[in-house]
Amino acid sequence: MFDKYLIVDDSLRNVGPADAPTGFAFDAKLGYYRGLGLSMIEALDIKIDGEPVDRAAVRFDEGKGPLTLDEMETAYDRRWPFGAAATITVERPGGLAPGEHHLAFTERLRVSYMPFPSMNADEKTLSI
User: Fold this and answer.
1) By Cβ atoms counted within 10 A, which residue in 17, 50, 91, 93 is the most buried?
2) Which residues contact 65 (CB under 8 A, 6 or more apart)?
3) Domain with 92 in it: what CATH number?
4) Structural domain span for residue 102
């Protein structure tokens, strides 16, 4: 239902020094209408230009400091509220080249009353 809003338009950017980017980042929103504790996010899968991103390269920050996806599993005191943008950063030496890039983002969420994970996905072509 909210899938087309997961990736925030015009949010793709390189991170780190301009002359030597250390990766790229984009802003994303939660696809579940109530917000969710970070420990209930099972996976954040990313593909850039069709290439899957390694889980270990991903960092998540809802405004309280970046966490690896492994650290999110035990972040019991942190939440991702519905409607709030979080920054997803990917470590990638050199960042992304200027121009258009196809970004695919999937969230797999563990919702207490659902017997299966909630899957939410969005794809957009964005420019740097």
Assistant:
1) 91
2) none
3) 2.60.40
4) 3-127
